[in-house]
Amino acid sequence: MPVWRYMELCLMHPQYGYYLSRDPLGRDGDFTTAPEVSQMFGELLGLWSASIWRAIGSPATLRLIELGPGRGTMMADALRALRVLPPLYQSLSIHLVEVNPVLREKQSATLAGVRNITWHESIDEVPEGPAVILANEYFDVLPIHQMVRRETGWHERTVGIDANGRLYFAATPDPVPNFEVLLPPLVRAAPMGAIFEWRPDTEIMKLATRVRDQDGAALIIDYGHLRSDAGDTFQAIARHSFADPLKNPGEADITAHVDFQALARAAEDVGANVHGPVTQGDFLKRLGVEARAAGLMAKASPEVSADIAAALKRLTDSGRGGMGSMFKAMAISDPRLTSIAGLSDQPDEAE
Prior knowledge:
Layout: H1 3-12, H2 34-37, H3 39-55, E1 62-67, H4 73-82, H5 86-91, E2 92-97, H6 101-110, E3 117-120, E4 131-136, E5 145-150, E6 153-161, E7 167-171, H7 185-188, E8 195-198, H8 202-214, E9 216-225, E10 235-238, E11 241-243, E12 253-255, E13 258-259, H9 260-269, E14 273-279, H10 280-287, H11 289-298, H12 302-316, E15 327-333
Helix pairs in contact: 3-4, 8-9, 11-12
C-alpha cells in the first residue's frame, strides 16, 4: 500500500489507530509538546489571538478554534491570559477539533467551567464567522505521499509485507506520469534514489479559504523545513525516542516534517496572506516570552525559577533538546491583515 495509506491506518484506524485509542502526551506517553513544557507558550498564543481580534475590528463574536488540542492545556493557558481583556473574553466561542475520545475527556476536565465550548470532528463543522485558528503540531501527522526517483521517473513509495510477515519499503513498478512537472525547483535535480515527500493541500486550503472569506487568521506551529526539498523525514516516536515506523504499527506516533513553503504556496494560491515562517524561538521572543519568564521567576522559589529557566531554554534554544529552531511559526490571514504580531521584522510589534 502507499506510504500515505499506511500512515493513515497507523494513526486513524477506527479500532487500532494510534490517535484514537490513547493519551500519547507527557512523561508517561510518547512525546511532549510545547504547551506541556510551559504555561508561557499557551499564554503568549492567547495574547497573540487578542492582537488578531483587535486587528480585525474587535468583532462581537470571535471563534477561537484549536486543531488537535491535546489535553486542553494550551487552550486553558490561552484563556487564562485572555481574561485580562473582558470584552474579548466575553466574545469568545471556543471550538476544539478532536477525534480522540480519550483526549476529549481530558480536554473537558481541563476546561471545566469554560462556557461556549464545542467539540468537532473536523473544522468543516465549525460555524462561520471571524476566527483565530491555532494549529500546534497538527500538520506533521497528516499523511504524506513519498516519491522515489529512479531512472524511469518518480515512483510512489509503498509498504509491503515479506514471506516472514515483516513490513518493508518498496515502490510501484510504474512511474507517476509527468510528476516531475509538479516538482519544486530544488527537487528536479535530485539524484537517483532520492525521496520527495508531499501532502495534499486540502487542510491548508480549508484554513486559508476560511480566513480569506470570514476575517481572522490561522497560526501554524510545527517542526519542518522552510524550503521544499528532497529528503526522507518519515519517522516514529515511542517513549520519547525514535522508533522504526514499520514495527508495531498503531503503537507509535508516526509523523513527517512539515513543508512550510508548500503550505505558504497553497495558502497564497487561494488568496490568503502569508506571514512568516520564522523559527519558534524568534516568534516567542518577539511576543515577549523572556519578559514573561522573568516575571514568573521574580515571584517563584529558586527551584521553580530553575524549572522556568529550563522551560524557556527548551522552547527557544537552538541547541540539543531545544525546540527553538526546529519548530517554525507561520500565519495565514485575511488579505487585509498586512502585519501580524511576532511574524514581522519589528521585534516590538506585539507589545
